[in-house]
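go over this:
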Amino acid sequence: MSVGNAILLGLVQGLAEFLPISSSGHLSILNNLFSLTTAEEGHMFFDVLLHLGTLLSICVVYWQDIVAMVHETLGLLNLGPMAGQRRQRNPGARLFFMIVLATLPLVLIMPIKDLLEGLYYNSIFIGIALVLTGCMLYVSDRMIPGKKSVGGMTIWDALIIGLCQCVAVIPGLSRSGTTITAGIATGLNREFAVKFSFLLSIPAVLGASILSLVDAFRDGVDLSNIPAYLIGMAVAMVSGIAAIELLKYISQKGKFGGFAYYCWVVGALSIILTMIF
């Protein structure tokens, strides 16, 4: 793999993973229509590194929230520096509990994981999924903003968002767009819906990366590509940080309509180009 391809794929992964435009959909289009690949041709290890790069992006931007979740959760379990203090509902521990609840529905995907992965190579399906993502974002812009944050979030809110994350495993559907829209629909305020969506991706991305890493080492890793892989990973991390900050800013304005139009255009082009070529 050339350094140029690694940079391009890292940029696409970092931006599309967090902006509500579907990283799987964009990488699929690059793979199927332009022969720029990650998992194929022995580059599965690079695909894992790209996802780990975006995982680092979340850790950088939300490190204070992550530290608070760990600190307060360990305190409630009498395993950390908060041991011995009066137990109470800390926002960090509550946020951790909600993320765990919202992650549980992903177990439902395991029996059909291979079937869903096969859709990655169907560019017409990817195009349709991107169009649906655009429709979802268009609708989310017209929802009445909620006021709930972590303190007002319920178990049902977390499970609903988690079920929507399961649906977003389908290639071409934006995970961030789907979970943010679900969060807004359950009454979360836009800023917290964005934060919860990104933090929710940590266990999902980490778990998928561990499973993929096993397959990647089984298929073999070309050590000569490692420098290009690491550059792509770094680009994914930096562009991911930029994408998160951009979406945080946009969430304050409450408008995702621009992404809806973008998804419609890219989805339509994917369908048209596939039918032509």
User: Anything to note?
Assistant: The chain has one domain: 3-276. The chain has a mean pLDDT of 88. Residues 75 and 81 are 6 Å apart (CA to CA).
